[in-house]
Design goal:
Blueprint (H helix, E strand, L loop, with lengths): L1 H4 L4 H24 L4 H14 L4 H29 L5 H24 L2 H21 L13 H18 L4 H10 L4 H27 L10 E2 L2 E2 H23 L3 H23 L3
Antiparallel strand pairs: 1-2
Helix pairs in contact: 2-3, 2-10, 3-4, 4-6, 4-9, 4-10, 5-7, 5-9, 6-11, 8-9
Protein backbone atom coordinates (compact mmCIF):
# COMPACT_ATOMS: atom_id res chain seq x y z
CA UNK A 1 0.00 0.00 0.00
CA UNK A 2 3.00 2.30 0.10
CA UNK A 3 2.60 3.09 -3.59
CA UNK A 4 -0.84 4.51 -2.93
CA UNK A 5 0.44 6.96 -0.33
CA UNK A 6 2.91 8.31 -2.88
CA UNK A 7 -0.02 10.07 -4.58
CA UNK A 8 -1.38 13.19 -2.78
CA UNK A 9 -4.51 12.34 -0.81
CA UNK A 10 -6.24 15.54 -1.92
CA UNK A 11 -6.47 13.92 -5.37
CA UNK A 12 -8.78 11.32 -3.82
CA UNK A 13 -11.20 14.01 -2.62
CA UNK A 14 -11.35 15.71 -6.05
CA UNK A 15 -11.87 12.28 -7.60
CA UNK A 16 -14.68 11.42 -5.18
CA UNK A 17 -16.53 14.69 -5.86
CA UNK A 18 -16.27 14.24 -9.62
CA UNK A 19 -17.42 10.61 -9.38
CA UNK A 20 -20.57 11.64 -7.51
CA UNK A 21 -21.54 13.75 -10.51
CA UNK A 22 -20.43 11.00 -12.90
CA UNK A 23 -22.56 8.41 -11.11
CA UNK A 24 -25.68 10.54 -11.44
CA UNK A 25 -25.04 11.20 -15.14
CA UNK A 26 -24.28 7.54 -15.83
CA UNK A 27 -27.45 6.36 -14.11
CA UNK A 28 -29.69 8.72 -16.08
CA UNK A 29 -28.06 7.93 -19.42
CA UNK A 30 -28.03 4.18 -18.76
CA UNK A 31 -31.73 4.21 -17.93
CA UNK A 32 -32.46 6.44 -20.92
CA UNK A 33 -30.61 4.33 -23.48
CA UNK A 34 -31.29 0.89 -22.00
CA UNK A 35 -27.67 -0.28 -21.82
CA UNK A 36 -25.76 -1.94 -18.99
CA UNK A 37 -23.78 1.21 -18.41
CA UNK A 38 -20.31 0.45 -19.76
CA UNK A 39 -20.86 2.36 -23.00
CA UNK A 40 -21.78 5.36 -20.85
CA UNK A 41 -19.47 4.84 -17.87
CA UNK A 42 -16.19 4.53 -19.76
CA UNK A 43 -16.35 7.90 -21.56
CA UNK A 44 -17.69 9.59 -18.39
CA UNK A 45 -14.94 8.06 -16.24
CA UNK A 46 -12.33 8.92 -18.85
CA UNK A 47 -13.25 12.61 -18.51
CA UNK A 48 -13.55 12.42 -14.71
CA UNK A 49 -10.13 10.83 -14.30
CA UNK A 50 -8.67 13.48 -16.60
CA UNK A 51 -10.27 16.22 -14.47
CA UNK A 52 -8.84 14.60 -11.34
CA UNK A 53 -5.33 14.61 -12.80
CA UNK A 54 -4.92 10.87 -13.25
CA UNK A 55 -1.77 9.97 -15.19
CA UNK A 56 -2.49 9.70 -18.95
CA UNK A 57 -0.71 6.34 -19.06
CA UNK A 58 -3.42 4.72 -16.90
CA UNK A 59 -6.44 6.97 -17.51
CA UNK A 60 -8.13 4.83 -20.19
CA UNK A 61 -7.54 1.36 -18.66
CA UNK A 62 -8.56 2.69 -15.21
CA UNK A 63 -11.87 3.91 -16.67
CA UNK A 64 -12.41 0.52 -18.33
CA UNK A 65 -11.52 -1.60 -15.29
CA UNK A 66 -13.70 0.49 -12.97
CA UNK A 67 -16.62 0.27 -15.40
CA UNK A 68 -16.33 -3.53 -15.53
CA UNK A 69 -16.36 -3.77 -11.73
CA UNK A 70 -19.55 -1.67 -11.51
CA UNK A 71 -21.21 -3.85 -14.14
CA UNK A 72 -20.81 -7.06 -12.06
CA UNK A 73 -23.74 -6.63 -9.64
CA UNK A 74 -26.01 -4.93 -12.19
CA UNK A 75 -25.48 -7.68 -14.77
CA UNK A 76 -26.09 -10.45 -12.21
CA UNK A 77 -29.32 -8.78 -11.09
CA UNK A 78 -30.48 -8.30 -14.67
CA UNK A 79 -29.64 -11.89 -15.67
CA UNK A 80 -31.49 -13.39 -12.69
CA UNK A 81 -34.57 -11.31 -13.47
CA UNK A 82 -34.66 -12.28 -17.14
CA UNK A 83 -33.94 -15.94 -16.36
CA UNK A 84 -36.81 -16.05 -13.86
CA UNK A 85 -39.14 -14.99 -16.68
CA UNK A 86 -37.79 -17.71 -18.97
CA UNK A 87 -36.47 -15.24 -21.55
CA UNK A 88 -32.78 -16.29 -21.49
CA UNK A 89 -31.53 -18.69 -24.18
CA UNK A 90 -29.20 -20.84 -22.06
CA UNK A 91 -28.13 -22.86 -25.12
CA UNK A 92 -26.56 -19.71 -26.63
CA UNK A 93 -24.80 -18.89 -23.35
CA UNK A 94 -23.42 -22.43 -23.09
CA UNK A 95 -21.89 -22.15 -26.58
CA UNK A 96 -20.50 -18.68 -25.83
CA UNK A 97 -19.24 -19.26 -22.25
CA UNK A 98 -15.74 -20.66 -22.89
CA UNK A 99 -14.94 -18.54 -25.99
CA UNK A 100 -16.04 -15.37 -24.18
CA UNK A 101 -13.83 -16.27 -21.20
CA UNK A 102 -10.87 -16.88 -23.52
CA UNK A 103 -11.50 -13.55 -25.25
CA UNK A 104 -11.61 -11.76 -21.89
CA UNK A 105 -8.32 -13.37 -20.84
CA UNK A 106 -6.62 -12.24 -24.06
CA UNK A 107 -8.06 -8.75 -23.54
CA UNK A 108 -6.67 -8.60 -20.00
CA UNK A 109 -3.23 -9.71 -21.20
CA UNK A 110 -3.31 -7.01 -23.88
CA UNK A 111 -4.39 -4.45 -21.25
CA UNK A 112 -1.28 -5.27 -19.21
CA UNK A 113 1.10 -4.21 -21.99
CA UNK A 114 -0.96 -2.02 -24.35
CA UNK A 115 -0.41 1.69 -24.89
CA UNK A 116 -3.36 3.99 -23.97
CA UNK A 117 -4.19 4.62 -27.65
CA UNK A 118 -5.20 0.95 -28.10
CA UNK A 119 -8.15 1.29 -25.70
CA UNK A 120 -9.27 4.57 -27.22
CA UNK A 121 -9.09 3.22 -30.76
CA UNK A 122 -11.03 0.03 -30.02
CA UNK A 123 -13.77 1.97 -28.22
CA UNK A 124 -14.01 4.58 -30.99
CA UNK A 125 -14.27 1.97 -33.77
CA UNK A 126 -16.89 -0.21 -32.05
CA UNK A 127 -18.89 2.84 -30.91
CA UNK A 128 -18.92 4.12 -34.50
CA UNK A 129 -20.17 0.77 -35.86
CA UNK A 130 -22.97 0.66 -33.29
CA UNK A 131 -23.84 4.28 -34.06
CA UNK A 132 -24.15 3.46 -37.77
CA UNK A 133 -26.59 0.63 -37.00
CA UNK A 134 -28.64 2.82 -34.65
CA UNK A 135 -28.78 5.82 -36.96
CA UNK A 136 -29.14 4.12 -40.34
CA UNK A 137 -30.18 0.50 -39.60
CA UNK A 138 -33.30 -1.03 -41.09
CA UNK A 139 -35.42 -4.05 -40.16
CA UNK A 140 -34.22 -5.63 -43.41
CA UNK A 141 -30.62 -5.72 -42.14
CA UNK A 142 -30.26 -9.47 -41.49
CA UNK A 143 -27.33 -11.89 -41.67
CA UNK A 144 -29.62 -14.92 -41.54
CA UNK A 145 -32.92 -16.33 -40.30
CA UNK A 146 -31.30 -18.06 -37.32
CA UNK A 147 -28.00 -18.11 -35.45
CA UNK A 148 -25.09 -19.87 -37.22
CA UNK A 149 -23.56 -23.19 -36.17
CA UNK A 150 -21.46 -23.85 -33.04
CA UNK A 151 -18.04 -22.91 -34.44
CA UNK A 152 -19.04 -19.55 -35.99
CA UNK A 153 -20.85 -18.82 -32.71
CA UNK A 154 -17.69 -19.63 -30.74
CA UNK A 155 -15.67 -17.24 -32.90
CA UNK A 156 -18.31 -14.55 -32.39
CA UNK A 157 -18.24 -15.19 -28.63
CA UNK A 158 -14.45 -14.86 -28.54
CA UNK A 159 -14.60 -11.54 -30.39
CA UNK A 160 -17.32 -10.25 -28.07
CA UNK A 161 -15.24 -11.22 -25.02
CA UNK A 162 -12.07 -9.63 -26.40
CA UNK A 163 -13.63 -6.33 -27.50
CA UNK A 164 -15.80 -6.01 -24.38
CA UNK A 165 -12.75 -6.52 -22.18
CA UNK A 166 -10.84 -3.80 -24.04
CA UNK A 167 -13.85 -1.43 -23.99
CA UNK A 168 -15.04 -1.90 -20.41
CA UNK A 169 -18.56 -2.97 -21.35
CA UNK A 170 -20.64 -6.01 -20.47
CA UNK A 171 -20.92 -7.07 -24.10
CA UNK A 172 -24.69 -6.61 -24.18
CA UNK A 173 -24.65 -4.12 -27.04
CA UNK A 174 -22.61 -6.42 -29.29
CA UNK A 175 -24.36 -9.65 -28.24
CA UNK A 176 -27.75 -8.06 -28.79
CA UNK A 177 -26.72 -6.72 -32.21
CA UNK A 178 -25.49 -10.17 -33.32
CA UNK A 179 -28.66 -11.94 -32.21
CA UNK A 180 -31.05 -9.44 -33.79
CA UNK A 181 -29.10 -9.52 -37.06
CA UNK A 182 -29.76 -13.27 -37.09
CA UNK A 183 -33.50 -12.82 -36.59
CA UNK A 184 -33.79 -13.37 -32.86
CA UNK A 185 -36.63 -11.45 -31.10
CA UNK A 186 -35.39 -8.30 -29.41
CA UNK A 187 -36.65 -9.27 -25.91
CA UNK A 188 -34.92 -12.66 -25.99
CA UNK A 189 -31.78 -11.04 -27.37
CA UNK A 190 -31.68 -8.52 -24.53
CA UNK A 191 -32.33 -11.23 -21.92
CA UNK A 192 -29.59 -13.51 -23.26
CA UNK A 193 -27.22 -10.56 -23.50
CA UNK A 194 -27.66 -9.94 -19.77
CA UNK A 195 -26.03 -13.34 -19.21
CA UNK A 196 -23.16 -12.29 -21.46
CA UNK A 197 -22.60 -9.39 -19.06
CA UNK A 198 -22.07 -11.83 -16.19
CA UNK A 199 -19.68 -13.98 -18.25
CA UNK A 200 -17.58 -10.92 -19.14
CA UNK A 201 -17.63 -8.56 -16.16
CA UNK A 202 -16.34 -10.89 -13.42
CA UNK A 203 -13.23 -12.35 -15.15
CA UNK A 204 -12.54 -9.04 -16.93
CA UNK A 205 -12.51 -7.14 -13.63
CA UNK A 206 -10.05 -9.63 -12.15
CA UNK A 207 -8.00 -9.32 -15.34
CA UNK A 208 -7.79 -5.53 -15.02
CA UNK A 209 -6.72 -5.81 -11.38
CA UNK A 210 -3.93 -8.09 -12.59
CA UNK A 211 -3.10 -5.89 -15.57
CA UNK A 212 -2.74 -2.74 -13.49
CA UNK A 213 -0.88 -4.19 -10.53
CA UNK A 214 2.59 -3.26 -11.88
CA UNK A 215 1.46 0.39 -12.11
CA UNK A 216 0.17 0.82 -8.55
CA UNK A 217 2.57 3.75 -8.15
CA UNK A 218 0.63 5.90 -10.66
CA UNK A 219 -3.02 4.87 -10.20
CA UNK A 220 -5.18 7.01 -7.86
CA UNK A 221 -5.41 6.23 -4.14
CA UNK A 222 -7.60 3.27 -3.13
CA UNK A 223 -7.27 1.42 -6.41
CA UNK A 224 -6.66 -2.26 -7.08
CA UNK A 225 -4.73 -2.37 -10.32
CA UNK A 226 -6.91 -0.69 -12.95
CA UNK A 227 -10.01 -0.68 -10.71
CA UNK A 228 -10.79 2.45 -8.67
CA UNK A 229 -12.49 1.34 -5.46
CA UNK A 230 -13.68 4.91 -4.90
CA UNK A 231 -15.20 4.83 -8.37
CA UNK A 232 -17.04 1.56 -7.70
CA UNK A 233 -18.27 2.66 -4.26
CA UNK A 234 -19.66 5.97 -5.53
CA UNK A 235 -20.83 4.99 -9.00
CA UNK A 236 -22.80 1.88 -8.10
CA UNK A 237 -25.37 3.32 -5.64
CA UNK A 238 -25.82 6.56 -7.58
CA UNK A 239 -26.28 4.69 -10.83
CA UNK A 240 -29.02 2.58 -9.23
CA UNK A 241 -30.71 5.65 -7.73
CA UNK A 242 -30.75 7.79 -10.88
CA UNK A 243 -31.42 5.10 -13.50
CA UNK A 244 -35.22 5.19 -12.92
CA UNK A 245 -35.22 8.85 -13.99
CA UNK A 246 -33.63 7.86 -17.30
CA UNK A 247 -36.15 5.02 -17.67
CA UNK A 248 -39.01 7.45 -17.06
CA UNK A 249 -37.68 9.78 -19.77
CA UNK A 250 -37.16 6.83 -22.13
CA UNK A 251 -40.77 5.68 -21.81
CA UNK A 252 -41.94 9.16 -22.70
CA UNK A 253 -39.98 9.16 -25.98
CA UNK A 254 -40.56 7.23 -29.24
CA UNK A 255 -38.25 4.26 -29.90
CA UNK A 256 -36.74 5.94 -32.96
CA UNK A 257 -35.92 9.05 -30.93
CA UNK A 258 -34.04 6.89 -28.43
CA UNK A 259 -32.11 5.12 -31.20
CA UNK A 260 -31.09 8.42 -32.77
CA UNK A 261 -30.18 9.92 -29.38
CA UNK A 262 -27.98 6.97 -28.41
CA UNK A 263 -26.43 6.89 -31.88
CA UNK A 264 -25.56 10.58 -31.65
CA UNK A 265 -24.14 10.02 -28.15
CA UNK A 266 -21.88 7.24 -29.46
CA UNK A 267 -20.72 9.44 -32.34
CA UNK A 268 -19.78 12.19 -29.86
CA UNK A 269 -17.89 9.66 -27.72
CA UNK A 270 -16.06 8.27 -30.77
CA UNK A 271 -15.06 11.78 -31.89
CA UNK A 272 -13.89 12.63 -28.35
CA UNK A 273 -11.69 9.54 -28.19
CA UNK A 274 -10.33 10.18 -31.69
CA UNK A 275 -9.48 13.72 -30.58
CA UNK A 276 -7.67 12.27 -27.56
CA UNK A 277 -5.76 9.92 -29.88
CA UNK A 278 -4.66 12.92 -31.93
CA UNK A 279 -3.68 14.84 -28.82
CA UNK A 280 -6.34 17.52 -29.33
Amino acid sequence: MEALSAIPMDQAFYLAAALLVAGAITGVLSGLFGVGGGAVMVPVLFEVFGFAGVDEAVRAPLAIGTSLAVIIPTSIRSFRGHKARGAVDMDVLKVWAVPILLGVIVGALIARVAEPWVFLLVFAVVATLNAVKLLFGRESWKLGKDLPGPWPMRVIGWVIGLLSSLMGIGGGVMANMVQTLYGRPILNSIATSSGVGVLISIPATLGYIYAGWPQMDVVPPFSLGFVSLIGVALLLPLTVLTAPLGVKIAHALPKRTLEISFGVFLVIVALRFIAALLGV
